[in-house]
Amino acid sequence: MNESIPPGSWLGLLGGGQLGRMFTMAAQSMGYRVCVLDPGTDSPAGDVADRHIRTDYLDQLGLFELASLCKGVTTEFENVPARSLEFLASHVRVTPSASAVAIAQDRIREKDFLRRTNIDTAPYAVVLKTDDLDAAAPTLLPGILKVARLGYDGKGQARVADREEARAAFARLGGVPCVLERRLALDCELSVVVARTESGDAVTWPVAENVHARGILDTSMVPARVEPALAQEATEATLRVAAGLDYVGVLCVEFFVAGGKLLANEMAPRPHNSGHYTIDACVTSQFEQQVRVLAGLPLGAAAQHVPAVMCNLLGDLWFTRGAGRPVEPDWTRVLRHPAAKLHLYGKREARPGRKMGHATVLGASVDEALAVVTEIRRDLGGSD
Fold it and tell me: Does domain 10-95 have CATH number 3.40.50.20?
């Protein structure tokens, strides 16, 4: 990867969601052409890409077509089959590696890796069969049972108060491998996004403070309203994770803060929802950085210009008027605020819980920006 990929070349992307859409737009603004491989017809990334190979991620002919066209390939979601990445890596530059993605795809491997990297997590037990729930320490209850693979945005999780509920939830989740985590009283949730090159150069963005609703990220406030020492600890832990994985690309590590103690929750081997504010508030966005790493270019500065608050815009907003059918929100209620930036993902169908876009509000302080976000949510009919 010593040789850089020049603008005008083709870059490939596995995945057609909104993260891929924003990567594609960043790459195109730098002069690259982008080919997306994604099986979906409603593809936010495929709609703006220069080419869309509409096929399954394990389709060898489609993968070969992508590798033949592109000089480098990256991913936009963590559940891309590792076999696809391994096949592509035998033909073309791929970031991140299949080995790094495989760890992040599996909560059991992920938590084991974090512990081996000397990063604390919430107390947990591995659950492969019902007997493991019976043997789990009583201090893990009440807890949260989480599937080891393919869970996201609160899906594949169940809150359980006791062993009986845990056994029922395990059956309801299909009896697949899980982890049982102790349910913690949280002070707050944080995340750190890092970009790292093959040579080990790395930059991190400021720590984000996150609020979730129904398991989905609702709001990110940056910089996080925490003590500088805690923010530094989160940043250093993220850099250790990236180095331990020998990670190449953009990576996010999410943290819990409980009783003042920092605990790693999970990692995402891609740009992250909590890093969307970087588009409007930083020297270099997480998506431009993803392009730079894939193309073998120097990293850009990650400094933040101004405090920012990002809020997700879910499909629920389309159903707040009680019409029984989706109605497009009045986006002037966002844009009448001069420091609000609207990003819509071009998804054709609004559904409750579906991420349809986001808004980022800039301000002299996080609290000032948060007040505007609260007003926007009220005006759109969402929660505040």
Answer: yes
pTM of the complete model: 0.95
pLDDT in tens, 26-40: 999 999 999 999 999
**Fold classification of 188-380 (topology level):** D-amino Acid Aminotransferase; Chain A, domain 1 (3.30.470)
The C-alpha atoms of residue 156 and residue 120 are separated, in whole angstroms, by 23
Using the predicted structure, report yes or no on whether residue 1 has a pLDDT greater than 80. Answer: no
Are residues 199 and 280 in contact, defined by beta-carbon separation less than 8 angstroms? Answer: no
In this predicted structure, the answer to whether residue 331 has a pLDDT above a threshold of 60 is: yes
Name the residue ranges covered by the structural domains of the chain: 10-95, 123-182, 188-380
Q: How far apart are CA 176 and CA 169, in angstroms?
A: 11
Q: What percent of the chain has pLDDT over 90?
A: 91
- What digits encode the pLDDT tens for the residues 217-236? 999 999 999 999 999 999 99
Q: Is 140 within 8 Å of 182 (Cβ atoms)?
A: yes
Cβ pair 377, 319 in contact under 8 A? no
Instruction: State the average pLDDT over residues 112-141.
Output: 96
CATH 3.30.1490.20 holds for 123-182: yes
Please, what sign has the CA dihedral across residues 87, 93, 99, 101?
Answer: negative
Instruction: Give CA torsion, residues 98, 101, 102, 107, to 10 deg.
Output: 180
Contact 309, 360 (CB under 8 A): yes
